[in-house]
Design brief:
There is one protein chain. With 214 residues, this protein is an alpha/beta fold. The strands form three sheets. It has a six-stranded mixed sheet. The longest helix has 14 residues. The two termini are 32 Å apart.
Length: 214
């Protein structure tokens, strides 16, 4: 295993122990924990003062992990993931039956592959998806630096990885692809016209739509 920068290595250790950390991403600073640790996920709800019915998005290292998160992946989802991942696109998909209720209480799951070396290293070395919500109190502006995370969350979290200012400056664009036609649920770093353009290209390439059940 390659030698990791000290802050990232400390973050991985904390995640493995069920802790909560903040870290830089390609969009805004994220607040995360091991997604397969129910106690850690519960703690993030408390830290953010977030309603329980608003589930958290998951960050994964690559598309190979997507098949474990989603039960049914439409062709447009694969197309958009190839176009915009890694990057600032969060896809909403029908959840896999194997996902625990605390992680996905509804019928869907939100997933993203980030384009930031710190974030990807955390996921890869943890070996599990991590919660990838913005590092702020619900309803407040997202944090774009470690200092801004500290101002909002202070000692509520276990550690902040200081990666400088987030390069994106905006939250991810959230697109529901649970059916063949994508629906933008939140406008973000990827402009809506880019999503529309990609969808038109998908329709041109695919005269018939396909849906893959895993």
């Amino acid at each position: 295993m390659a030698v990791l920068p000290r802050e990232i290595e400390k973050g991985i250790i904390i995640l493995r122990k069920g802790g909560v950390i903040a870290f830089p991403t390609d969009t805004v600073y994220g607040l995360g924990a091991n997604a397969l640790n129910s106690g850690a996920v519960e703690r993030i709800y408390e830290i953010k003062n977030r309603p329980k019915h608003q589930q958290f998005p998951l960050l994964i290292a690559d598309t190979s992990q997507l098949t474990a998160m989603a039960g049914e992946i439409p062709g447009i989802a694969w197309f958009l993931s190839e176009r915009f991942w890694p990057g600032g696109l969060t896809l909403v998909l029908p959840k896999a039956d194997s996902l625990p209720a605390y992680l996905a209480p509804g019928r869907s799951i939100a997933v993203r592959v980030p384009n930031h070396p710190v974030c990807l290293t955390l996921i890869q070395h943890l070996g599990n998806p991590i919660i990838g919500t913005s590092a702020n109190i619900s309803g407040q502006l997202p944090a774009l630096s470690a200092a801004e995370v500290g101002q909002q969350l202070g000692e509520k979290i276990d550690f902040i990885i200081n990666g400088g200012k987030s390069p994106g400056g905006k939250e991810s664009t959230v697109v529901d692809v649970s059916s063949q036609e994508p629906v933008i649920l939140r406008r973000g770093i990827i402009p809506a016209h880019e999503i529309d353009k990609a969808y038109k290209e998908y329709l041109e390439v695919n005269s018939e739509t396909h849906c893959y059940r895993l």
